[in-house]
Specification:
By secondary structure, the protein is α/β, with parallel strands linked by helices. The protein has eight helices and seven strands, in the order ααββααβααβαββαβ. The structure holds zinc ion (2 copies).
């Protein structure tokens, strides 16, 4: 947590800069960047959350994918200001974006009641390097807002390569069997991560949760590649 702590401390003493464009601003996002948030609007695929030409329950992308989650949603596309916000958190430890920007936008995508909120875990070696798990911070914020407990039962059981380096099909192989639950899980689970790309990580996590007893898993990320 050390780096994140330092950055939070720095926030208190230095004038604020917009996380979208870096210019001086009176808030985390300047007005222009706020207006440019790359929102995913209707119509989108009801299964995987991808923008589509018309409302559908199975889009071209997910037609052949065997997702283990019931649905996936993200408020923003992983581009422009959306991508800048993710990077501000992940690589610069700017944790204030979680409570101020990510959780409020993600909350708008949550429908119905959940029994459990589960973050996509980081393997302990990566957690040690980064100092914090961004998905866990997001899950914690969401858990408070929707009044469902957060669970740390899902763990990364082996190290995986960074998905960023890999092609679509390699990503599925990379995360296959990479997650497991330490103990039983029950009910309807909200699975939380920062970015949804192929859905391989979310699907692998959902599979592990279902194996551990979860009734159904719904994936929620802050951004999604489109
Ligand atoms: Zn800006
Ligand atoms: Zn789809």
């Amino acid at each position: 947590m050390y780096r994140a702590y330092l950055s939070a401390l720095a926030d208190l003493f230095y004038p604020q800069h917009c996380v979208g464009c870096g210019r001086r601003a009176s808030d985390l996002l300047c007005e222009r960047c706020f207006a440019e948030l790359p929102e995913i609007k209707h119509p989108f695929c009801q299964r995987c959350g991808a923008p589509t030409a018309f409302e559908t329950f199975v889009c071209e992308n997910c037609k052949n994918a065997d997702y283990k989650f019931e649905s996936a949603r993200a408020p923003l596309k992983y581009e422009g200001v959306g991508k800048e916000i993710v990077h501000a958190l992940k690589y610069r430890g700017y944790i204030r974006v979680v409570e101020r920007l990510m959780v409020p936008l993600m909350l708008e995508m949550v429908q119905g009641k959940f029994d459990l909120v589960v973050p996509v875990p980081l393997h302990r070696s990566r957690l040690r390097r980064r100092g914090f798990n961004q998905a866990e911070l997001m899950a914690r914020g969401l858990s408070e807002k929707i009044n469902s407990p957060i669970s740390d039962k899902l763990v990364a059981v082996r190290r995986t390569r960074d998905q960023v380096e890999l092609s679509g099909s390699e990503r599925w192989v990379n995360v296959s069997g990479a997650f497991g639950a330490r103990g039983p899980v029950a009910g309807k689970v909200l699975l939380v991560d920062d970015v949804f790309t192929t859905g391989a990580t979310m699907s692998s996590c959902a599979g592990a949760l279902i194996k551990a007893g979860a009734r159904e898993v719904h994936a929620l990320s802050f951004c999604r590649t489109c």
